[in-house]
Amino acid sequence: MNTLPLAYKKAFKPADIRGTYPDQINEEVVYRTARAFVEEFKYKKIVVGYDMRLSTPALKKAFIEGARQSGASVVDIGMVRSPMLYFASGKLKLPGAVITASHSPAQYNGIKLVEAGAAPLTAQTGLSAIQARIEKGVFTDTKKKGGITKKSLRREYRSHVLKGVDRKQFKGMTIVADIGNGMSGVSMKALDRLLPAEFPMLFEKPDGNFPNRDSDPNLRKNQKALIAEIKKKKADFGVGFDGDGDRIAFLDEKGTYVNCAVIGALIATRLLAKEPKAGMVFTNLTSKVFEDTIVEYGGKAYRARVGHTFLKKKMKEKGAVFGAEHSGHFFWRDFYNTDSTILTLLEVMEAYAEAKKEGKSFSQMLKPYLLYQQTEDVVIPVDDKKVVLEYIEKKLQKMKPMSITKFDGYFVDFGDVWGAIKPSVTEFAIKLMFESKKKKDADKLQKELFEFVSSIAEKTK
């Protein structure tokens, strides 16, 4: 295959490369991406991992071949979760790539690229330059093809995440884990073996068809089996993972979904007790309980653009210790400023071990943080995000809110209701999400603005 698909440019997003296979991303796109990645930055050695999607074997092979043809040697760490690639990049001090489409549906695939130390590449830091090289299709003929070695870092990874953890405190816990046929089964099996807690698992086998549920664990429609299993096992709580294992969703002992910012707020109180005045990162879509908690406990709250790459960048810029995003990404300074579902799970387990000693259930532990109710985000397709956002700004000004923060779209605060209207990072769309102490108030405002944006989207076609 030597031709690029006609729609390949659609796969190049501000934060990663992701599209439908094979009409937006195919072997040629991936081969050229590898060559451009190596040649743009003059890399001599890179680390590569990949997920379980049906198109991944062919794309992985093309990427490794492209990198080697451009003279870089490849460290193949095998079929892994995205956080394992980040760990490998940080530990080995190497740039790298993971072939994955994260939480996207089965027909998608993509590439996440990182610099040495796991700093993600964005359009500003290299993706645009890589795309320009791909379009030219001119690459250097190297005299010596790069080599390839296989390496497992599982033992080092487990030592890293379990460092300082008192394992005895988890005795007697039962935590149901919905793997969703993604990449998190190996890590959860390791925890099941290494900790005195039980982790009954659902949909453990990696399967790129996603036969049991869609890959996003935070959507209510994808939590039915997990809810049933929590109740059946009388578990302490449950967790769900996405395809590449960088998102985690928490459900309490009743099977009730817990907003990611509530988990973030719980963790923030614990981290700020250890490191007063520490910085933490949030976004326009993160429930305000996270920001409020950071400020209340003496920390510094920093706003970042929505998207894992942008939070990681802000984490590094500010020296922040932790960050939380509404989609189930949790970021840790001590994990190379990247997402770690396992560090997040362990921290929550430690908090719950303390609460359990006091006779509290998981939901009772979280009750102090259940202050607000957030709508599920809605996505409205538009032809021109910039034009539609201009209409939205005029509409918001007429509504006379207490404040409008122009950052990554708009964060608007009416006092009793607040929320975000923002351009999607990965789609030609506008995203809305609102919050209030009363769900009906948030729903009402979201409905009004949804109808307005929909009408403008139709008008500007």
Architecture overview:
By secondary structure, the protein is an alpha/beta fold. The protein has 4 domains: 8-151, Alpha-D-Glucose-1,6-Bisphosphate, subunit A, domain 3 (Alpha-D-Glucose-1,6-Bisphosphate, Chain A, domain 3, 3-Layer(aba) Sandwich), CATH 3.40.120.10; 171-256, Alpha-D-Glucose-1,6-Bisphosphate, Chain A, domain 3; 260-339, Alpha-D-Glucose-1,6-Bisphosphate, Chain A, domain 3 (3-Layer(aba) Sandwich), CATH 3.40.120.10; 373-459, TATA-Binding Protein (2-Layer Sandwich), CATH 3.30.310.50. Helix content is 38%, strand content 21%. The chain is built from 14 helices and 22 strands. The chain has a 6-stranded mixed β-sheet, with helices on both faces. Helix 8 runs parallel beside helix 9 (288-296) and helix 8 (260-274) packs across helix 11 (341-357). The longest helix is centred in the C-terminal third of the chain and has 21 residues, at 439-459. The chain is globular, with a radius of gyration of 22 Å. The chain starts with 16 loop residues before the first strand and ends with a helix.
